[in-house]
Amino acid sequence: MDRPFRRFAPARSGTMALVGNSTVGARHATDQKRNGTMEDLANVYAIERLVLAYATAANRRDFRAMADTFDDNGRLVGMAEMMGLNQEAIVGRADIFSFFSAALEAVEYIFQNAQLGPVMIDGDEATAQVMLTELARWRGQNLSVFLGRYEDRYIRTPSGWRFAERKLVPTTLFQPSGQFLI
Q: Do residues 11 and 32 lie in contact, with contact meaning Cβ atoms separated by under 8 Å?
């Protein structure tokens, strides 16, 4: 069977192998045959859909849908701190929803573009970095541009993959100067 992806590194017990744009961990010797299977690709696809669901919800300013991408005990780290609030992490889906609702209510629009990097899967847990470009306009202010990344930890739940932790790591935030045509 010809596959649309290729393995970049041999899979051995306890090693990681790149599959497409994702890294899948071999759990034990019998998993060598599993590495790169449809199950592995399905897990990576589900995580990619989760990242996309969060970005799409942010773009729509759908704070409930943003919060629903987190596990019940999920953690949002770094965002409140970056916004000048004296809180390192928001813990729990309900508190994350409350934070998004209050902190982002004054945003007129957000255009968030997220690029998922290699995914490291280990059973029912996974990690990845998501490169982030975000354009946003707060009421009464000019457009702002944010560049950074999320350092994500994912967990598989009965409802599918969810964020166990999303840590925002800013690179830069600036307001471009110039005239906007629209």
A: yes
155 located within any domain = yes
Flag whether 144 is in a domain: yes
* Residue 96 exposed, middle or buried by CB count within 10 Å (0-12, 13-18, 19+): buried
> How would DSSP label each residue in 154-170?
EEEETTEEEEEEEEEEE
26 neighbors 11 (Cβ within 8 angstroms):
yes
Element (H, E) at 3: none
In a domain, 24, yes or no: yes
- Torsion sign over Cα 5, 8, 10, 16: negative
Question: For the chain, what is the domain count?
Answer: 1
In this prediction the pTM is 0.77
Strand (E) or helix (H) holding 96: helix 93-103
Element (H, E) at 133: strand 125-138
- Does a structural domain hold residue 124? yes
CA-based nearest residue to 33, from 63, 7, 2? 7
DSSP assignment of 68-94: HTEEEEEEEESHHHHTT-S-SEEESHH
Mean pLDDT check: name the lowest of 1-5, 114-118, 142-146: 1-5
